[in-house]
Amino acid sequence: MARMTMIEAIRDAHALAMERDENVVVLGEDVGYFGGVFRCTAGLQKRFGVQRCFDTPISELGIVGTAIGMAAYGLRPVAEIQFADYMYPGYDQIVSEAARLRYRSAGEFTCPMVIRMPTGGGIFGAQTHSQSPEALFTHVAGLKTVVPSTPGDAKGLLLAAIADPDPVIFLEPKRLYNGPFDGHFNKPSVPWSKHPDGEVDPDYYEIPLGKAKVVRAGSDCTLITYGTMVHVALAAAEASGADVEVIDLRTLLPLDLDTIVASVTKTGRCIVLHEATLTSGYGAEITALIQAECFYSLEAPIQRVAGWDTPYPHAQEWDYFPGPDRVRRAIDLVMEG
Which of 93, 98, 126, 263 is in the most buried spot, having the most CB atoms within 10 Å? Predict the structure, then answer.
């Protein structure tokens, strides 16, 4: 096993995929010569050449549209959008073309592409560099949506996404790029090199899309989350007096409903946690599914903990995030029910 940051694991996944398949190409703003704004593609252009790792104009619509055309004609493009906040000009191409190409062509054309986007807050990026738009993708039939929480998962999920025959949205929590934390965003990061989850298999491997992971077993209540909030959930669970089971979804679509149902049926109590705003957030879909599938097992109302329903605040970033204290209060509430 090797020690890697999430950035290094993502870079390694790119290189391994490009080694195995000459049809894998990487494109985006500054991904080539500079190696990406977060350095996730550093060294790929020098190693594989400018035809397989190249810079694009500052046009998200152009990046996505070009990648769709490449995918339709047999390549496997991995497109980077510098920040998830910038994807809106390309959203029409993602929804109207990438997600529908297999269906509108009756399978004659497919769209095996990955769109990578740094997502979420934690770096004081304010409104235009901190959004969590996952619900905008999970609403669209034909897309898969992935959010890793560790370097090992990031590598295995990205390799599976590149190998997938359909379009995958790959959201990378930028707060976790260089290291996890104790759940409080304003505490110093713990380098992945000193964290157990920083261990990554240096060889090629895939983590199947659609498989959640129970990262903490428990019997009193179930806490369902993904991405950065996995670490918040674990911190809250450890600090609470309850025996909390924590599920890392890893893939939002396809969703591993079986793991969720098994856990909630066992515990009878459930909290859904995400960084994105509450209203119409992805947590609402999970809550509805649990209500339908686990109604007779529930001992208390399902709780949702999420970001505020406001534009992203810069000055109050640490209060905006659902921290361990807010999650712990939700745990206490469901345990009282």
Answer: 98
